[in-house]
Write a structure and sequence with these properties.
CATH superfamily of the largest domain: Metalloenzyme, LuxS/M16 peptidase-like
Order of helices and strands: EEEEHEEHEEHHHHHEHEEHHEEHHHHHE
CATH class of the largest domain: Alpha Beta
Structural class: alpha+beta
Length: about 425
């Protein structure tokens, strides 16, 4: 496999190539780095619930279940083998992807071989699946007691009626009970194939060594006849299904989240990336720690350091979320709505854009100091169909007029919903 330089706006060294079986490989060589970080990801997450062209369903929570199961094989727990090599390993399942990783300063070549091996050589038995069902059921019950998890998915349940983004990433006790070894194998074969995966490496490991290890691994595997997974659309209603979720849990203070459902969907990779970045700039300009709005809310005791404002967006779904701990959820909601209504009326202005643009640009540049951030960023850009570090160019392109349009199209009052967790009544 040959790795070729990949152009990017930062002139950061990035080498890219495809294995003989179609696995995309991106390497950010840093010979002066003390360690190496690598991530192997697949374009399969919790929202992917149709298994093939025939429409065979994927049980809720299966992507997360697969993540757990791949760490156990005939030799035992894979994590123990990484520990022997002096490395740490982990994995994570998100809405649209599952990623396996390691970080090490010792034996990065052996760690890379182990990463490629355990992710691509699964070992499923019904006995081990039943054992895992009990473990994950306990994890799900733990999430049921987590106020942050409950308020988050309570809000998504308000925003979405049908889209699987509303469902717990781990599934439910009932849904994982449907999973057996044959189901795992069927879904693994559909989504864990080279053309649907990507390997990213950042750090001290020589790119030629990476290429040699990958090609040796891939040459021993069969041809990949499958195309990369393409996420379908849903018949999700445009606006939230309901405007409020409330429940009582064992918390010391109320927790509040206000969500805004994305009503502008689709578009190409750059359209989606631009939508994400413009919304992030709007939220930071209105509610960032340096704004008068945050200072006022903080001075009035309506927010504390837990307050945040963020946006998550994909071609088929998206949402903004604002909130945190507060003694007065109703007053905080009123102030947030008032701020957004005023901003839609008056616009943000060029001064806010300049300030936030510089801040985000600086954050993006600082993130390059971390091999972990670079590896994750390269993988995210790949799966989104973007050139490396595309956000850095987009930051400079976004205009004040574009932000005002984004304010008007996204922060519609009929797209709002609220989730509140209150302390249990005494």
């Amino acid at each position: 496999m040959k790795l070729e330089p990949l152009a990017n706006g930062l002139s950061e060294p990035v080498l890219a190539g495809d294995s003989c079986r179609g696995l995309r490989v991106l390497v950010n060589p840093r010979p002066d780095s003390a360690g190496t970080f690598a991530a192997l990801g697949t374009n399969f997450g919790s929202v992917d619930r149709v298994g093939d062209a025939r429409g065979v369903p994927v049980p809720e929570g299966l992507a997360h279940f697969l993540e757990h199961k791949l760490f156990e094989d005939a030799q035992g727990d894979v994590s123990d083998r990484f520990s022997v090599l002096g490395a740490s390993t982990n994995a994570m399942t998100g809405f649209c992807g599952t990623t396996y990783l390691f970080s090490t300063t010792d034996a990065p070549d052996a760690c890379l071989r182990l990463l490629l091996s355990f992710v691509q050589d699964p070992w499923f038995t019904d006995e081990l699946v039943r054992k895992e069902q009990g473990i994950i059921a306990q994890e799900i019950r733990m999430y049921d007691d987590d106020p942050d998890w409950r308020i988050f998915f309570g809000l998504l349940g308000c925003l979405y009626e049908k889209h699987p983004v509303r469902d717990n990433i781990a599934g439910s006790v009932e849904s994982i009970a449907e999973i057996d070894a044959a189901t795992l194998r069927r879904c693994y074969d559909l989504f864990y194939h080279p053309r649907n995966m990507c390997l990213t490496v950042s750090g001290a490991l020589d790119p030629e060594v990476v290429a040699a290890i990958v090609e040796e691994d891939q040459a021993a595997r069969p041809e990949d006849p499958l195309a990369p997974h393409v996420r379908g659309t849903s018949d999700e209603p445009l606006l939230p299904v309901r405007d409020r979720h409330e429940e009582e849990l064992a918390v010391s203070r109320p927790r509040f989240l206000m969500g805004v459902k994305e009503t502008v969907l689709g578009g190409g990779p750059l359209d989606v990336a631009r939508r994400q970045l413009a919304t992030r700039i709007v939220l930071d300009a209105l509610f960032g720690r340096a704004t008068t709005t945050f200072e006022s809310l903080y001075a009035d005791g309506l927010v504390d350091e837990s307050f945040s404002a963020s946006y998550s967006g994909e071609p088929g779904f998206g949402f903004s979320m604002l909130g945190g701990d507060t003694d007065d959820p109703e007053a905080l909601e009123a102030r947030l709505r008032e701020t957004l209504v005023r901003a839609r009326r008056d616009g943000l202005g060029t001064d806010a854009l300049k300030r936030v643009r510089q801040k985000i640009y600086g954050q993006l540049l600082r993130s390059l100091d971390s091999t972990e951030n670079v590896a994750f960023g390269l993988m995210t850009d790949h799966f989104h169909g973007l050139q490396p570090f595309a956000a850095l160019d987009l930051v400079e392109q976004i205009t004040a007029e574009e932000l005002d349009r984004r304010l008007a199209e996204h922060f519609r009052e009929d797209a709002f919903a609220v989730s509140v967790v209150r302390p249990c009544a005494r």
